[in-house]
Write a structure and sequence with these properties.
By secondary structure, this protein is α+β, with helices and mostly antiparallel strands. Helix content is about 25%, strand content about 20%. The chain has 11 helices and 17 strands. It has helices at about 1-10, 15-25, 40, 60-70, 125-135, 170-175, 175-185, 190-195, 225-235, 260-270, 325-335, and strands spanning about 80-85, 95, 140-145, 165, 240, 255, 280-285, 295-300, 305-310, 365, 370-375, 380-385, 390-395, 395-400, 405-410, 415-425, 430-435. Strands 2-1-9-8-7 form a 5-stranded antiparallel β-sheet, sandwiched between helices. Strand 7 (about 280-285) and strand 8 form a beta hairpin. It starts with a helix and ends in a 5-residue tail after the last strand. About 45% of the residues are buried. Mean pLDDT is about 85; it is low at about 30-35 and about 345-360.
């Protein structure tokens, strides 16, 4: 507050007297009892005096806040914690802890569930799901976890060791880096980012950066809310919608993974916690570069839980790996929840969403409408849903491809506007207009 007031006074927005008067206003004191909703979460929900009904459940909110305050007391003085618990069917946030409210050393006046951070390895399940859906790989596909360079990029696994040949399912469970980067190289960084952004959730690249292979290891920015929304879609039928905090807020889910791919990923990730803990829960961890962010996400057939631990200013936490920080907290949060059916994961019979289609509809994953393609190299074309075999066309002319796959490559003959179309065996079609722009055409 002092910094903002000083800048406002220097800029002439406030007079020195106004800035001094504002600095004398007492800051809100931290409540000793858990609030029904952290004030940081209320920002922007409604005008002053308006009654706002949220989706939060007070008993669970109180229990979660007490758990979080117990856990945060074990962290360093400048480290913080954020937790979300949501219904994976209705996408309603049932409880949330947005940070240590009122503690300026832990950015206690910010909603840390919205903070843009590096996701570490938490996006790997969605890369594998897209690769499964497009026929690039399957759970039993052999992948190589061996030293490899991708141009100037030479990723390594977290423990700096390599497993050799390994099945895709085991590579995902172990969160190995080389197999994930290899799959992204086959899928394409731009189609992967386009699929994520098509959900309407925030996925932010560094300024002036282009989509690249490090994205799947944490080389972009997103938030706890966005990641929890992705895992809620994974826990149901593969469709993604932003989590809702307001009761009665509409939902418009967007397909990200087809139901079969989502089901395969759920089966891979559902395994015991390291110290056993609650059974029948799918979970995934992630740690960003320099141990700046420790993540853990878990789901069963009703709940999705997300945990973030880190320093709000983005500085590293020595030894702050997710398995020792975020994952134990995730286990404790599931201990607060009623046990949902966890023996098997099947697509939910009904969701609190729009009516489900009988079959996964055909859609063009990449390029999305309005894409501007820079350069003159080959462009990845990818589709999801529909009935195979698929046919890709550009301006009505077929593109030679293996019809059993859901992807191919096309080299534009020159700059201009093109119509990309995909057809399935039942006659369904999806298309998009794109622009190809070469160096002299900018």
């Amino acid at each position: 507050r002092a910094g903002v007031l000083a800048r406002a006074a220097r800029a002439g927005i406030l007079s020195p007297a106004e800035a001094a008067a504002a600095a004398r206003v007492p800051l809100p004191r931290r409540r000793h009892l858990p609030a029904p909703l952290a004030p940081a979460l209320l920002a922007g929900l409604g005008a002053p005096g308006r009654v706002v009904r949220t989706t939060l459940e007070r008993p669970l909110e109180v229990a979660l806040t007490r758990l979080a305050e117990s856990e945060i007391s074990r962290l360093c003085a400048s480290c913080s914690l954020a937790i979300l618990v949501a219904d994976s069917r209705s996408r309603a946030i049932r409880a949330a802890y947005a940070g240590d409210w009122g503690n300026p050393r832990r950015a206690g006046y910010l909603d840390l569930t919205r903070a843009i951070r590096s996701p570490g390895s938490t996006l790997k399940p969605f890369l594998y799901g897209l690769a499964f859906a497009q026929g690039i790989a399957g759970p039993r596909t052999w992948l190589a976890d061996t030293p490899r360079r991708f141009g100037f990029y030479a990723p390594e696994d977290f423990n700096h060791r390599f497993m050799g040949r390994i099945r895709a399912a085991d590579a995902l469970r172990r969160s190995l880096n080389l197999p994930a980067v290899t799959l992204l190289a086959r899928l394409g960084p731009l189609p992967f980012l386009a699929a994520l952004r098509a959900t309407g959730l925030p996925f932010v690249l560094p300024r002036f950066a282009a989509p690249s292979l490090p994205m799947v290891l944490g080389g972009l920015g997103t938030s706890l809310r966005a990641l929890a929304a992705l895992y809620a879609g994974l826990a149901s039928d593969g469709r993604v919608a932003p989590l809702r905090l307001l009761a009665g807020a509409p939902l418009h889910p967007i397909p990200l993974l087809d139901p079969a791919a989502a089901r395969a990923i759920r089966r891979i990730l559902t395994r015991p916690f390291p110290d056993r803990g609650p059974a029948g829960i799918g979970w995934k961890t992630g740690t960003s570069a320099g141990n700046r962010d420790s993540w853990a996400f878990g789901f069963d057939r009703r709940h999705v839980v997300g945990v973030w631990v880190g320093r709000p200013d983005g500085t590293p936490m020595p030894g702050g790996v997710s398995t020792s920080l975020a994952l134990p907290i995730l286990e404790r949060v599931f201990g607060l929840l009623p046990a949902a059916p966890r023996a098997q994961h099947r697509p939910a019979a009904a969701l609190d969403l729009a009516a489900r289609p009988a079959a996964d509809p055909l859609r063009l994953l990449f390029p999305p409408p309005g894409t501007v393609i820079e350069g003159g190299g080959a462009v990845a074309l990818a589709a999801m849903g529909g009935q195979r075999p698929l046919r890709f066309l550009v301006d009505g002319s077929p593109i030679r491809s293996r019809r059993a796959l859901r992807r191919t490559r096309w080299t534009p003959p020159g700059p201009g506007f093109y119509r990309v179309t995909v057809l399935d065996a039942a006659g369904a079609a999806a298309d998009a207009w794109v622009r190809v722009r070469l160096g002299a055409d900018r």
